[in-house]
Amino acid sequence: MHLSEHDLWTTGSNRVATMAPGPGDLFVMTTLDGKRVFVEPIDQYDRAVRIAEGFARRIVHDRPVIIRVLPMSLPEMLAHMRMPPEKLAAGLDADDGADRKLITDTCMAALRESSDQHVRAEAFALLTSMGVLGQ
Fold first, then answer.
1. Is it the case that residue 90 has pLDDT exceeding 70?
2. Dihedrals φ, ψ of 28, to 5°?
3. How far apart are the C-alpha atoms of 58 and 124, rounded to whole Å?
4. Which residues are registered as beta bridge partners of 31?
5. How would you classify residue 82: left for phi > 0, otherwise alpha for psi between -120 and 50, otherwise beta?
6. What residue spans define the domains of the chain?
7. Which DSSP category does 58 fall into?
8. Which is it for strands 66-72 and 59-60: parallel, antiparallel or unpaired?
9. pLDDT tens digit sequence for 27-78
10. Residues 73/25, Cβ–Cβ less than 8 Å
């Protein structure tokens, strides 16, 4: 598989599969051939779809490639990572700034903006277990 420098606009069989965000979704994960490529806050959903569509037009491979853009709640993301919240918090090294910042920013936004009390409770619990918020 390689990425062409040109926008090929192929009628080939590369596909982008998306699902619209639902209530409680905090993250958007992009996968390529079943492997996680990007994880971003849900407010980046439209951007994630545009990037996936751009890649689908440029990927050259001997078989069709499927790029999935999947909105996820915090429990879904943790299940996908096969990690309980307390293990995630313990496993985030302070030096692993990008992942820690993504999770912190996303959860803080959920506390401020979500009207779903379960989403706010999950975000609060994760931030507390990470030591971002006091108990």
1. no
2. -125, 125
3. 40
4. 36, 68
5. left
6. 1-72, 74-135
7. H
8. unpaired
9. 899 998 888 888 888 888 999 999 999 888 877 777 888 899 999 988 888 7
10. yes
The tokens 């440029």 sit on which residue? Answer: 58
Closest CA to 3 of 52, 69, 70: 52
Q: How many CA atoms lie within 13 A of 88 on its CB side?
A: 23
Cβ(3)–Cβ(58) below 8 Å: yes
Name which of 51, 81, 85, 83 is nearest 68 in CA terms: 51
Question: What is the percent of the chain where pLDDT is above 70?
Answer: 79
What one-character DSSP code corresponds to residue 44? G
Pair of tokens at residue 82? 């096969």
Whether 73 and 26 have beta carbons less than 8 Å apart is answered as yes
* Buried-state track 89-108, b at ≥16 Cβ within 10 A, e below 16: beebeeeeeeebeebbebbe
By CB atoms closer than 10 A (0-12, 13-18, 19+), residue 80 is middle
> 10's torsion region: left (phi>0), alpha (psi -120 to 50) or beta?
beta
